[in-house]
């Protein structure tokens, strides 16, 4: 498994230069490291910010499970989407509001065909809200398909 969390991860994260705003590090409540976040008040409605995880050394014709923590806190905060590089136009995962402000776990199966996925993009889209934030943390890639638990 590969740990791509932001405090101690070994992965290569890049801010997209062609989007409207950047994701920024935010301190965790317990003080152990940080996560990446977009505050609700950044940008204008429908603006997007993309944070790209560059993946190298994924084996062709194999499957992986991408697991991550996410939080959509605040009224009408916006949307969080995940795109795989080989399917640029359609998100493989999307969430537009949280039931509460708690962290939740997202899981995405990545199937490698002959063409391997070389990046995963987390995209935040600004909503109407003025408070809250969209956050992502603890991004881990493990080989094999995702399990339910």
From TrEMBL:
It comes from the Eukaryota. The gene is Egfl6_1. Coiled coil: none annotated. One of its GO terms (cellular component) is membrane. PROSITE patterns: MAM_2 (PS50060). Pfam families: MAM. Residues 2-148 form the MAM domain. It comes from Rostratula benghalensis. This is EGFL6 protein. InterPro entries: ConA-like_dom_sf, MAM_dom, MAM_domain-containing. Transmembrane segments: none annotated.
């Amino acid at each position: 498994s590969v740990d791509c969390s932001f405090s101690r991860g070994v992965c290569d994260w890049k801010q997209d230069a062609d989007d409207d705003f950047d994701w920024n590090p935010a301190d965790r409540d317990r003080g152990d490291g940080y996560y990446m976040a977009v505050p609700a008040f950044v940008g204008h409605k429908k603006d997007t910010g993309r944070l790209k995880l560059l993946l190298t050394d994924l084996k062709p014709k194999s499957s992986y499970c991408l697991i991550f923590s996410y939080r959509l806190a605040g009224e009408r905060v916006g949307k969080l989407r995940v795109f795989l590089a080989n399917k640029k136009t359609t998100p493989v995962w999307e969430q537009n509001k949280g039931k509460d402000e708690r962290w939740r776990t997202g899981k995405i199966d990545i199937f490698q065909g002959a063409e391997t996925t070389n990046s995963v993009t987390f995209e935040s889209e600004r909503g109407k809200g003025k408070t809250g934030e969209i956050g992502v943390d603890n991004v881990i890639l493990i080989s094999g398909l995702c399990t339910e638990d």
